[in-house]
Specification:
With 182 residues, this protein is mainly α. It has six helices and no strands. Helix 1 runs antiparallel to helix 5 and helix 2 runs antiparallel to helix 4.
């Protein structure tokens, strides 16, 4: 059984691409270039940030493994959104590595001037833009899952079984009878 795709699903799927195209066109319109002063610092910062994001994804995937039997993860599987979820996880990790590799290559080739460097820079602009929106989307989703699972676990800990409720009621009744007898 497949889940019906909603307009929200389509928007969630497409907004990184739409905003990336807008930024890419804007960068071309403004004649952005890799020759801008301070580009090496920008590339160093992007390499650092991308590495941090990749480490964050790695740790979050470990957390997802530990909560695989939680209610929220069961609901994801029952509502047949695990395919979309997996796709977004893979997509965000892959684009992170692409941005990291492109940034390293661009940092090496920044001292050269040619058509290859211009193409590399344009690919980098596109990928960095997509990376930003894709990262926002998946981190937002991962944090919602983690905090929802945590809240559900807390509720589960506070819920009492029928046997526990019956025993507590018996203790209360016993205490009430003792008070009446005294």
């Amino acid at each position: 059984m497949h889940r019906k795709i909603t307009i929200g699903d389509i928007i969630n799927f497409l907004y990184p691409t739409i905003f990336t195209i807008i930024i890419f066109l804007l960068a071309n319109k403004l004649n952005c270039s890799y020759k801008v002063k301070g580009m090496n610092n920008v590339l160093s910062s992007i390499i650092t940030f991308t590495s941090i994001v990749i480490a964050f994804y790695t740790s979050m995937y470990g957390i997802l493994i530990t909560i695989k039997d939680s209610r929220i993860m069961k609901e994801i599987r029952q509502n047949h959104v695990n395919g979309i979820f997996k796709y977004q996880l893979y997509e965000s990790l892959i684009i992170s590595f692409i941005v990291l590799i492109l940034s390293i290559f661009l940092q090496i080739s920044i001292n050269y001037s040619g058509k290859l460097e211009e193409i590399l820079f344009e690919c980098w602009i596109f990928c960095v833009s997509y990376f930003a929106f894709s990262t926002y989307r998946i981190i937002n989703l991962l944090l919602k899952i983690i905090f929802t699972a945590d809240a559900q676990e807390q509720i589960s800990k506070n819920e009492k079984s029928e046997e526990q409720k019956r025993q507590q009621l018996q203790r209360i009744n016993k205490l009430n009878r003792q008070k009446k007898n005294n």
